[in-house]
From TrEMBL:
<protein>
    <recommendedName>
        <fullName>Heme chaperone HemW</fullName>
    </recommendedName>
</protein>
<comment type="function">
    <text>Probably acts as a heme chaperone, transferring heme to an unknown acceptor. Binds one molecule of heme per monomer, possibly covalently. Binds 1 [4Fe-4S] cluster. The cluster is coordinated with 3 cysteines and an exchangeable S-adenosyl-L-methionine.</text>
</comment>
<keyword id="KW-0949">S-adenosyl-L-methionine</keyword>
<keyword id="KW-0004">4Fe-4S</keyword>
<dbReference type="InterPro" id="IPR058240">
    <property type="entry name" value="rSAM_sf"/>
</dbReference>
<keyword id="KW-0143">Chaperone</keyword>
<dbReference type="InterPro" id="IPR034505">
    <property type="entry name" value="Coproporphyrinogen-III_oxidase"/>
</dbReference>
<feature type="region of interest" description="Disordered">
    <location>
        <begin position="1"/>
        <end position="20"/>
    </location>
</feature>
<keyword id="KW-0349">Heme</keyword>
<dbReference type="InterPro" id="IPR007197">
    <property type="entry name" value="rSAM"/>
</dbReference>
<comment type="similarity">
    <text>Belongs to the anaerobic coproporphyrinogen-III oxidase family. HemW subfamily.</text>
</comment>
<feature type="domain" description="Radical SAM core">
    <location>
        <begin position="24"/>
        <end position="268"/>
    </location>
</feature>
<feature type="compositionally biased region" description="Low complexity">
    <location>
        <begin position="8"/>
        <end position="19"/>
    </location>
</feature>
<keyword id="KW-0411">Iron-sulfur</keyword>
<keyword id="KW-0408">Iron</keyword>
<dbReference type="InterPro" id="IPR006638">
    <property type="entry name" value="Elp3/MiaA/NifB-like_rSAM"/>
</dbReference>
<dbReference type="InterPro" id="IPR004559">
    <property type="entry name" value="HemW-like"/>
</dbReference>
Amino acid sequence: MAPAQPEGLPGPLDGLLPPSAAEGSAERTLSLYVHVPFCAVRCGYCDFNTYTAVELGPGVSQDAYAGDAAAEVRWARRVLDDSGVATRPLHSVFFGGGTPTLLPAEDLAAVLAQARESFGLAEGAEVTTEANPDSVTPGSLAVLAAAGVTRVSFGMQSAVPHVLAVLDRTHDPDNVPRAVRWAREAGLGVSVDLIHGTPGESLADWEHSVRTAVGYEPDHVSAYSLIIEDGTKLAARMRRGEVPPIDEDDQADKYELADRILAEAGFEWYEVSNWARPGTDPGAHRSRHNLAYWRNQDWWGIGPGAHSHVGGTRWWNLKHPVPYTNRVRAGQSPAAGREILDADTRHLERVMLEARIRDGLPTAALPEGGRTAVAGLIADGLVEPAAALRGAVVLTLRGRLLGDAVVRRLLA
């Protein structure tokens, strides 16, 4: 079951953005997100806008999807130009899903080629694809690398079979190290995604998963706490009492354990749920694409249900691939709705997002009440005192666990 879309103003069929979207655009980076809404099997915890082959129905073909996505890329360039938004090469490109690597590697390469033709890629641009470890081969990864992909993010989630079973993850855990090795041989950077707090997962299970992931020597690790969303299979199982409810104390213990193991292995946290090896410089292996989100830069989302943001204007595409495809092929905007954020909302979101990252939120960006609150947050062990002296709010480990409470106090 795909998530409900937000309410908003109707998206104009010409896609033109308001003048406010162009203001200051030359000073912001531009990224591209390409949503591939296909999965072989729907995982029990997933509420993303994805579809298995039997759910697609007539009028949609995975074989034709690359052409439709490329058409929206061309559309995006025309709309930005016609809206007076500054021309910029792409800072990053991210293929997400779904399972992008269900498509032939040549299809992803074709969409990337269109992005390069329409926008260009900035020097050193990061190009990432998510991947199920079962859906790649040495050959497909080599094709992606030759096309310009620089990084692959593998959905590992856990190294423990009974945990994967609760999540309805069907990949073979033994394929993860093979996929990582193949990616390395193709010259690609590697990230692995983990999930903690799955019902029935012990602390020992979680430690085994984190240490196993570290043993694969990735450049980057994401570790997310499991969230049970309404409408998912796992939520229904929980309501029926088939699996125990989420234990927030257990999730906190697992977060602290992951942070310790990753730090011991040389990883540094740079966002609440993300750690990277320092490399030649502190930001070498951080996800530049995700940092663009957390810093409220500009991005255009391609595909059904994809969200976009340019200069305080946010919009989202029609969810189902059929109406999305019909709009794109008709030369019309596939947007279902949009909103223009006011100054208060933009400030709220800046505080919420930048407080999550290690670079920190400038205290100068806070209202007087927020700046006053910093001293109390330091006293409570939630904010690093040395960073505050430099003029930034940076969360301590305890602060990361209580991030929502910190944000509320900064906004008071």
